[in-house]
Specification:
The chain is mostly helical. The chain is built from eleven helices and no strands. It has three domains: 99 residues, no CATH class; 98 residues, Helix Hairpins (Orthogonal Bundle); 35 residues, no CATH class. Helices cover 70% and strands 0% of the residues.
């Protein structure tokens, strides 16, 4: 889709792009149908009808469907050219299918899921800050900049650019009070936008450590080495039999 937007590249190689698109859709369609058919092997989707419907409503299944929908929908429903172009943009969802096979993306997904409440609170605070700061700037600067700050929704663009420390420069305060307020808001934005990064990084590190320390993540050689160390510590009298048993249980997991 990205290369197709380059007319100089797409026009002379249109046949190749179309063939590649058909091939990709065929592969993704077969994959989607196979996943939909075999999902009943999972106890959560055991019902032949309701189970498949529940699976089809999961986020990953929706992404799979959106990846192939733009190709098939125009075959059954006559659509306006503008709608067709909009549907073609849905092909970008094919990129999200990588998350099925990427350990890092799966790990990030678990982190986001674990911190969803914290992230929600942070987003609420950021939205509240945007509303408050844009309102303040509107009342301070509206009289001297009636066009650039015509209303509070217009001022929200300035608030977002300032709080995120981007500062495009298309709208900026000109009065002394407005400049003082803008500087304070910019400093506030540095801290507020750093909070989500700090929360996610700490949660990501904790998830990585939890995964690395789980028995399933250890190789057989590592397990044998740990058991030998425990046996040596018991022989030297550093650990008691009970302590060795506890540590052995941790090494082998609940099934050990």
């Amino acid at each position: 889709m990205i290369l197709e937007s380059v007319e100089g590249l797409y026009i002379p190689h249109a046949t190749f792009f179309q063939a590649f698109d058909i091939f990709s859709v065929a592969v993704f369609t077969v994959e989607y149908l196979l996943r939909l058919w075999t999902c009943t092997a999972n106890p959560d989707y055991a019902n032949p009808v309701l189970g498949r419907l529940r699976y089809a409503a999961t986020p990953l299944a929706i992404i799979d469907l959106l990846a192939i929908l733009p190709f098939f929908l125009p075959m059954f429903i006559p659509l306006d050219l503008r709608i067709m172009r909009a549907l073609r943009l849905l092909r970008v969802f094919r990129i999200l299918k990588i998350s099925r096979y990427s350990y890092a993306l799966k790990l990030l997904g678990r982190v986001m899921k674990a911190q969803v409440h914290v992230i929600g609170v942070l987003i609420f605070i950021l939205v509240l800050l945007v509303v408050i700061t844009s309102s303040l700037m509107f009342f301070v600067e509206h009289d001297v900049q009636p066009d650039d700050l015509a209303n509070i929704p217009t001022a929200m663009w300035w608030a977002v650019a300032t709080l995120s420390t981007v500062g495009y420069g298309d709208v900026f305060p000109v009065t002394p009070l407005g400049k003082a307020l803008g500087g304070l808001i910019a400093l506030l934005g540095i801290g507020m936008f750093a909070l989500p990064a700090g929360v996610l990084s700490s949660a990501f590190l904790a998830e990585v450590q939890k995964t690395d320390n789980s028995p399933q993540s250890r190789s057989p050689e590592e397990v044998v080495d740990l058991l030998e160390r425990l046996a040596l510590l018991r022989e030297e009298g550093i650990l008691t039999d009970e302590e060795v048993a506890v540590q052995k249980q941790r090494v082998l997991g609940d099934d050990g």
